[in-house]
Amino acid sequence: MNNTVIGITTEIESEHFRIKHRYVDAILKSGGVPMLLPPVDNPKIYAGEIAGLLIPGGDDLDPSYYNEEKLPRVKLVSKERSGFEMALLKEMVKLRKPVLGICYGMQLINVAFGGTLYQDIESQLKVAINHKTDYHMIVITENRFLREGRFSVNSTHHQAIKEPGKGLSIIARSTDNLIEAFCREDYPFLIGIQWHPERQLEAELSVSIFDSFVRGADGGE
């Protein structure tokens, strides 16, 4: 194991900070050192210390961030969490340090770059796949971060990317055309992923995602 410290933001639940252990497991398996990051007033203190940032899954981002009214099925994460993550992401981008966003984390990155979301797929879109449960196929197209091809991934989300944020390139879609992954081509490593690779650590695609992330944070290509 090297000393590549990967910060993982946490959920706030009453008097507790919460994170699912599989995110930690994934970073450890790829040789990184996980550091849990509860919200603080000055995110610069984290940005200077960590080599990479993982923004994990969670509930829903407040649609006021992209100038929409909240729909009934939206379950919000706290503004304390999302505001902190937005500010920390900004600091990491200034330093050009690697960032990986998973599910809610992907959606937050998209909005931070000026993009928008479908607040609730079922009520706003006609799609062929139930994205809230089970597995489905995605197609990854040519990019410099993930292997191209068709892959089966898990699916537990009810929101999705509508308009991609500025500078974000779409690199994966579901077979019913929802955006499943994006990257920033002009950045050392910045990827958003809609599925949960930390729940499929035996899968080659999942391993490659976390290995590439930790390697990028360690200064590798």
Number of strands: 13
Instruction: Give the % helix.
Output: 25-40%
How many helices? Answer: 6
Low-confidence stretches: none
Give a quick account of the main beta sheet: strands, pairing sense, barrel closure.
9 strands, mixed
If strands are numbered along the chain, what order do they take across the biggest sheet?
4-1-5-6-13-12-11-8-9
Overall pLDDT score? 95
Secondary-structure element sequence?
EEEHEHEHEHEHEEEEEEH
Which of globular, elongated, flat, extended, rod-shaped describes the shape? Answer: globular
Distance between the termini: 18 Å
Helix- and strand-based class?
alpha/beta
Radius of gyration: 16 Å
Question: Strand percentage, roughly?
Answer: 15-25%
